[in-house]
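Sequence, please.
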Protein backbone atom coordinates (compact mmCIF):
# COMPACT_ATOMS: atom_id res chain seq x y z
CA UNK A 1 0.00 0.00 0.00
CA UNK A 2 1.42 3.39 -0.89
CA UNK A 3 2.07 6.22 1.57
CA UNK A 4 -0.92 8.28 0.43
CA UNK A 5 -3.32 5.42 1.17
CA UNK A 6 -1.67 4.83 4.56
CA UNK A 7 -2.07 8.53 5.43
CA UNK A 8 -5.76 8.30 4.45
CA UNK A 9 -6.16 5.28 6.75
CA UNK A 10 -4.38 7.13 9.57
CA UNK A 11 -6.70 10.09 9.29
CA UNK A 12 -9.78 7.86 9.19
CA UNK A 13 -8.69 5.76 12.17
CA UNK A 14 -7.80 8.86 14.21
CA UNK A 15 -11.10 10.59 13.40
CA UNK A 16 -13.04 7.45 14.30
CA UNK A 17 -11.16 6.98 17.58
CA UNK A 18 -11.77 10.62 18.54
CA UNK A 19 -15.46 10.26 17.69
CA UNK A 20 -15.63 7.30 20.08
CA UNK A 21 -13.33 8.49 22.88
CA UNK A 22 -13.21 12.28 22.52
CA UNK A 23 -10.41 14.61 21.46
CA UNK A 24 -6.77 13.95 22.24
CA UNK A 25 -5.68 15.90 25.33
CA UNK A 26 -2.19 14.57 25.86
CA UNK A 27 -0.27 17.33 24.09
CA UNK A 28 1.45 14.73 21.91
CA UNK A 29 1.22 15.14 18.13
CA UNK A 30 0.94 12.24 15.69
CA UNK A 31 3.54 12.67 12.92
CA UNK A 32 3.40 9.55 10.78
CA UNK A 33 4.14 5.88 10.20
CA UNK A 34 7.35 3.92 9.75
CA UNK A 35 7.99 0.26 9.02
CA UNK A 36 10.54 -1.90 10.78
CA UNK A 37 10.62 -2.99 14.40
CA UNK A 38 6.93 -2.49 15.15
CA UNK A 39 4.20 -2.57 15.97
CA UNK A 40 4.54 0.02 18.71
CA UNK A 41 4.40 3.75 19.38
CA UNK A 42 7.65 5.72 19.17
CA UNK A 43 7.73 8.76 21.46
CA UNK A 44 9.92 11.72 20.52
CA UNK A 45 9.97 13.62 23.84
CA UNK A 46 11.99 16.60 22.61
CA UNK A 47 9.19 17.58 20.22
CA UNK A 48 6.24 15.86 21.98
CA UNK A 49 5.58 13.85 18.82
CA UNK A 50 4.50 10.24 18.35
CA UNK A 51 5.35 8.03 15.41
CA UNK A 52 3.64 4.70 14.73
CA UNK A 53 6.06 1.90 13.91
CA UNK A 54 4.58 -1.09 12.08
CA UNK A 55 6.20 -4.43 11.28
CA UNK A 56 7.75 -4.97 7.86
CA UNK A 57 5.03 -7.57 7.24
CA UNK A 58 2.40 -4.80 7.33
CA UNK A 59 4.08 -3.23 4.30
CA UNK A 60 2.86 -6.08 2.05
CA UNK A 61 -0.03 -7.62 4.02
CA UNK A 62 -3.13 -5.42 4.10
CA UNK A 63 -4.71 -7.40 6.95
CA UNK A 64 -1.64 -6.79 9.12
CA UNK A 65 -1.54 -3.15 8.05
CA UNK A 66 -5.15 -2.53 9.05
CA UNK A 67 -4.83 -4.45 12.32
CA UNK A 68 -1.52 -2.95 13.43
CA UNK A 69 -2.34 0.59 12.36
CA UNK A 70 -5.80 0.61 13.95
CA UNK A 71 -4.42 -0.89 17.18
CA UNK A 72 -1.58 1.63 17.48
CA UNK A 73 -3.80 4.56 16.49
CA UNK A 74 -6.30 3.56 19.19
CA UNK A 75 -3.51 3.43 21.78
CA UNK A 76 -2.33 6.87 20.69
CA UNK A 77 -5.83 8.35 20.75
CA UNK A 78 -6.54 7.30 24.34
CA UNK A 79 -3.25 8.53 25.85
CA UNK A 80 -4.04 11.11 28.52
CA UNK A 81 -0.64 12.00 29.92
CA UNK A 82 2.87 10.62 29.77
Amino acid sequence: MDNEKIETLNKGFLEHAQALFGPIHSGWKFVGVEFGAGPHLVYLPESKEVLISLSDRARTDDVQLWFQLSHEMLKFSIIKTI
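Residues 3-77 form one domain.
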